[in-house]
Amino acid sequence: MAQNPTPMLLRFSPTSPFARKVLVLAEDIGLREQIQLVPTNPWAADTDLPACNPLGMVPALGLGSGEWLYDSPVICAYLDSLHSGRRRIPDNGPSRWTALRRQALGDGLMEAGLKLRIETTMRPAALRWADWCARQDAKIRRALQALEGEVLTFPREDWTIGEITIAVALGYLDFRWPGHDWLRDCPQLAVWSEHQKTRPCLQSTMPVE
Ligand SMILES: N[C@@H](CCC(=O)N[C@@H](CS)C(=O)NCC(=O)O)C(=O)O
After folding, report:
1. Right CATH number for 94-199 from 2.30.30.30, 3.20.20.70, 3.10.180.10, 1.20.1050.10?
2. Which partner from 51, 95, 109, 173 sits 20 to 30 angstroms from 190, CA to CA?
3. Is the shortest distance between the CB of 76 and ligand 1 below 6 Å?
4. Residue nearest to atom 16 of ligand 1 (CA)
5. Sheet with 68-69, side-by-side order of all strands
6. Cα(152) to centroid of ligand 1, in Å?
7. Per-residue pLDDT of the chain (209 residues; tens, 9 = 90+)
8. Which residues contact 138 (CB under 8 A, 6 or more apart)?
């Protein structure tokens, strides 16, 4: 395996699903020990995160050269380029586009969940926008239905960035809304999700408040 000469720094928050996606991939491809974690609260008024990522978001990966990479798809593509094993982002062919599309769907699930959470926990109650919440809820339900329709085609062992992202997105929904009914009409996806939880890289990256 190629060794990165200087350790990489990951600005991350332990509750961020996007940061968890990066950590799951890093562990899965054997690069976790080359990354030093820098816990960062992107919402803190005095955070210096914008010096690394002008968008003020985690995850951001410091390369040791002074350059910082963001956002999670870019960081994952970079990490996947550093090892000599099976690529989690296939180099070419239809499997590449399926993996990237699934990553986009998983990222979109996380984003809808995050927007829902911001609206329901951070925004003052008097200013909350019910239609916005309903819109995010509908996105989540449609995305899950789409995944239910293709979950039986997911690779059994050789997962890609697509399935990694989807597993982390489902974990985020469980973490923030325990007991939710979003998977009620997605029995195959629910079974798949439970099975993924036995993977060491998902167990070692469980979100904590
Ligand atoms: N598209 C970005 C999304 C990252 C993101 O939304 N991060 C959240 C934490 S989960 C954040 O830092 N939010 C702070 C903000 O929006 O100002 C990625 O894939 O990395």
Report:
1. 1.20.1050.10
2. 95
3. no
4. 57
5. 35-39, 8-12, 60-62, 68-69
6. 30
7. 455 568 999 999 999 999 999 999 999 999 999 999 999 999 999 999 999 999 999 999 999 999 999 999 999 999 999 999 999 999 999 999 999 999 999 999 999 999 999 999 999 999 999 999 999 999 999 999 999 999 999 999 899 999 999 999 999 999 999 999 999 999 999 999 999 999 999 999 999 98
8. none
